[in-house]
Amino acid sequence: MKKEELNNSRQKAVGRRQDDSETCNPKPVTRNKRIVITFTVLIILLLVSILLSLSYGKNIYVVYKSFFTDDGFGLVLKKIRLPRTMVAFFVGGSLGICGVTLQSILRNPLADPYTLGISGGASLGVTISIMIGMQHYLGMYANPLMGFIGAMFSVFVVYMLSRRKFFNPNSMVLFGIVVSLVFSSFVFFLFSILDPDKMQVTLMWLMGDLSSLDVSLVYVYALMFLVPASILLFFGKELDILSLGSEKAQYLGVDPPKMYKILFLLTSILTGLCVSASGIIGFVGLIVPHVLRNIIGASHTPLLFASYLGGAFFLIMSDIFSRYLLYPVELPAGVVTGIFGGFILLVLLVRRS
């Protein structure tokens, strides 16, 4: 009898433990469901935004038929709407994952893809290109090439300065801000002696213009975007470990200085491509990771993929507003992202406080 009572008590204890574990640990199930729902919603929203960008003012049947013709709306679709939507998709998605990566490695929630001085260097490169008329020598490649070279030069300066501080996150942020301010000062100096017509072209680029990239370069840029972005998307585990601190990361088998260099290089190349393709478009890499981190948590693997989808959706919708909000006047996409992004950030800060 005693043995049976002992066995019954053990079985009851095991049952209670299982019940307790089920009641005390509902978070993983809830979180997984939340991630699935978030990805489903993001994919639907992204598809709707792409369809709206391509078909605004037309029905779906007309858009479908236009893919097989080169006349009328078919020409507009293939030469203007489709390339512009592709640029918005790749630039928005790339800025989203760059924002996640830099906020993690710099341990600064206000970091964005332009924190490391890339915007200042790219602005200076494009301003010099327009000022000296490099279009006469390089044609459609002039501004994107000079913008990318300027961005990479500023990254190189920040890299060399940060190297002396062993890539300390705070030092990298400070160096990036200082380098960006110095290059921006040179841009304003050039503005003071620049021809007014050339200054207008430069200002449109600085405010984020998705129509600035030549149509024939869009498909080349698409391939260039995919390579570093595809690599970055699979660094989620390493970012999770790095977020624990350098000492714990080394204990878990990750070399922080080496990983910082790899991530720094990938984000710099990807951000440089974004700037050279569309100018400076702010708040995408800052707002999108913030919002999605509050929804699906801080695990970087789902956050990277979600931020790519969310960034693409945000920029495509901003581009739609920029085209049709004050039609026939077209606003730069960077102005719209700044307005919406600033408002969203303000709401998040008020709610948090």
Structural class: mainly alpha
Distance between the termini: 62 Å
Under CATH, the topology of the largest domain can be stated as ABC transporter involved in vitamin B12 uptake, BtuC
CATH class of the largest domain: Mainly Alpha
Largest sheet: none
Q: Report the average pLDDT across residues.
A: 84
CATH-scheme architecture of the largest domain: Orthogonal Bundle
Q: Rg to the nearest angstrom?
A: 24 Å
Unreliable stretches (pLDDT < 50, length at least 5) are 5-26
Overall body shape? globular
Strand portion, in percent?
under 5%
Instruction: State the CATH superfamily name of the largest domain.
Output: ABC transporter involved in vitamin B12 uptake, BtuC
Number of strands: 0
Order of helix and strand elements from N to C terminus: HHHHHHHHHHHHHHHH
Q: What is the number of helices?
A: 16
Fraction of residues in helix: over 70%
**Count of spatially separate domains:** 2
Describe the structure.
With 353 residues, the chain is mostly helical. It has two domains: 44-73, no CATH class; 85-352, ABC transporter involved in vitamin B12 uptake, BtuC (Orthogonal Bundle). The protein is 80% helix and 0% strand. The protein is built from 16 helices and no strands. The longest helix has 33 residues, at 73-105. The protein is globular, with a radius of gyration of 24 Å. The model is unreliable at 5-26 (pLDDT under 50).
What is the compact description of this entry?
It is built from 16 helices and no strands.
